[in-house]
Amino acid sequence: MTERFVLAIDQGTTSTRCIVFDHRARLVSVAQREHQQHYPSPGWVEHDAVEIWRNVQRLAPQALAQAGASVSQVAAIGIANQRETTVIWDRTTGVPVGRAVVWQDTRTDALVEELAGDAGRDRFHDLCGLPLTTYFAGPRIRWLLDATSGLRERAERGEVLFGTMETWLVWNLTGGPDGGAHITDVTNASRTMLMDIQTLEWSDELLGGIGVPRAMLPEIRSSAEVYGKATVVLPGVSIGAALGDQQAALFGQTCFSPGEAKCTYGTGSFLLLNTGAEIVRSSHGLLTTVGYKIGDDDAVYALEGAIAITGSLVQWFRDNLGLINSAAEIETLALTVEDNGGCFIVPAFSGLFAPHWRSEARGVIVGLTSYITKGHLARAVLEATGWQTREVVDAMNADSGLALTTLRVDGGMTADNLLMQFVADVLDVPVVRPMALETVSLGAAYAAGLAVGFWPDLEGLRRNWHRAGQWLPNMDAAHRAAEYDSWQRAVERTFGWKKIPGKEPQ
Amino acid sequence: MGKSIQSIERAAAVLRLLAGGPRQLGVVDVAGSLGLAKGTVHGILRTLHHVGFVEQDDATGKYRLGGALLHLGTSYLDVNELRSRAINWADALASRSGEAVRIGSLLDGRALVVHHVFRPDDSLQTGEIGLLLPLHASAIGKVLLAYDPTAAPEAKWSAEAFTQRTLVSPTHLSRALAEIRERGWACEADEMSIGVAGIAAPIRGQGGLVVGSIEVTGSVDRLCDRGRVPKPELVRQVQDAARAVSRELGAQRW
User: Fold this and answer.
1) Final residue in a domain of this structure, among B65, B93, B115
2) For the domain that residue B13 is a member of, what is the CATH number?
């Protein structure tokens, strides 16, 4: 029998990657290409959606060639994508009306304030599970419709279409102007602020409240089902899955049961907890989101805690302070001392995200004495990631009533042994690293493989998951409590630092 | 002392000149100061640039001392850097071979385990990062010993016998190390603990310097045939992984 494969497209913020997996879920080949970041004015970040589509057209055949596989050996395509990045394009020409507005882009800050009005940031929270921030796609669509003359009218007539990156890619893969499927999946739709988190349909109340015409929106589909067959690039191959990247990582880590959680440690970090069929509305600053939906099965929900600064604090330590030459050396420097010497760093570089959501907070280094060396600072840098994880896990435990028993980790920072041990120590649960660190693309491949029967069921996928490393908690409880207390006092010292014009400091 | 090599002397003079002050120098400045032809100086500077000993200013095209030179005194590869660069390849090796993988680096006459990937069978295993292994009785250790120019095994330590198969005699050990250099991999079977084997290959950094070693480790029955000869397929997988990590670290030919 000829060997068959699944192709994952990981459309990320800085690059697009096509990855081929075999039936045992082993990575066979990778083709990667970066795309340009456009910064037209402060706080604005844009991508050229056409460039990204062109990259996919090049990378997919390249990945197949590297794997020595033909198109007929590809069982399905799965897509994982950067979330909340927004593109609007002309339905008849397929040409975007402008560049895609990226999730990091903060141009909607004034609009978001205006939408919040007297009702506050949680105006739509009950309906969509999200607070009003610059993060999500809905307000971004509204901004684009307001900013471009005549665009709203064209949107109302259905002449232009909206999509996040998976929508854009599926539409192009299935023929574009020539009958392309205009769809999104529930996980991506759950990041627009336009979808009712309960019914999983576009909500008239949200569409009206934010000001987005229904005619431009894609159809909401499951994360794993065949959306159609590709007509170009890999003609005839079924497109079987689409998920937002963090949800794909949750899936790739096989966190299929309520209470299972993963944290992806990168520049920032994202902790997602599977809450099963239950929609948990957070009272501790977490986001309620769809984890995944397989075919006709019920949707599985998740709580998400986003930490803005983790790996980027190490980068700052390297690039701005110049105390290390590479990110990995932070561990070596930290190991020159036995503890943090009483020093704590809270990296509230642009405010604090979950669970505090304090935009006026700014970073602090506290506990400085003449005893402190750069080794202690290195410790404090790593510990900041550990304590921020602890805060998010505490919030999740409080919101969900599920006590986390194990944390599955992935992402570049998992190579830092000292950090992973510290995370286990401060959470007081085992931290486990899987054999395959490419969990985002693996999750997309898994979902697509399920949709076409390449893999039979979730249990089968679980069997592919193997533990590559594990860190067990090894910190005295009293010491943990005392250190956490110090961390929390350090966090308090970041509050109210930036004065907001017209407001007295708190 | 034999005849000295002129181009190295000239390169040293260029470096001394650049080290003489905070300024940056162009090809013409250097050629003028040292009384050399511009073409010669250009060739020397290009070569020094290639190995990272000088850097070129993007705007002016002038040269200054490079970062690699500053780290020459501590030119060992950071072990945490090694782990972070090797992690994907070590995972792939564990996944293909079905065995546990360890990466080692030389530390005070022993092999420090800097990375450890569990055997992918989800059995109970403990992390071994930080463990120190004897050089003469472990596969990763033997590789490090074989390629360490400063090691003189016969004189340096009293080799402890862990089992009857441990190589303790200087003659046997020297012969084993020569063989490792010859074929490019090492094996240990029943030499540290009965029933356990390892197959290791060298990880090379820039310029081909051996900076560590990578091994699969597991039961002798799975890793070797009846005569304690390692399975060729596993040897090949270990060597492939070692080469992949070496390429990642900038070694060109290995």
Assistant:
1) B65
2) 1.10.10.10
Q: Output the CA torsion sign for A163, A165, A171, A172.
A: positive
* A83-132 pLDDT, tens digit each: 999 999 999 999 999 999 998 888 888 898 899 888 888 899 989 999 88
- Are B113 and B27 in a shared domain? no
Choose the final residue of a domain: B23, B39, B65: B65
Determine the residue of chain B that is closest to A413 in CA distance.
Answer: B84
Higher pLDDT, A449 or A43: A449
pLDDT at A171 over 60: yes
Euclidean distance between CA atoms A266 and A105, whole angstroms? 19
C-beta atoms of A329 and B125 within 8 A? no
Identify whether the C-beta of residue A81 lies closer than 8 Å to the C-beta of residue A239.
no
Decide if A222 contacts A188 (C-beta within 8 A): no
Same domain, B61 and B79: no
The DSSP code for A338 is S
B254 located within any domain: no
**Which amino acid appears at position A335 of this protein?**
L
DSSP string for A415-469: G-HHHHHHHHHHHTS-EEEES---HHHHHHHHHHHHHTTSS--HHHHHHH--EEE
**Contact status, residue A84 vs residue A11, Cβ threshold 8 Å:** no
- How many domains does the structure of chain B reveal? 2
| Chain A residues bordering chain B (beta-carbon distance below 8 Å) | 26-27, 325-332, 412, 414-417, 435-437, 466-471
DSSP string, A249-312: HHHHTT--STT-EEEEESSSEEEEEEEET--PPPSSSPEEEEEE-BTTSPPEEEEEEEES-SHH
How much of chain A exceeds pLDDT 90, in percent?
74
pLDDT band at residue B74 using 50, 70 and 90 as cut-offs: very low
Q: Does some domain include residue B90?
A: yes
In chain B, the residue whose alpha carbon lies closest to the alpha carbon of A26 is B95
What is the domain extent for residue B230?
A: 74-248
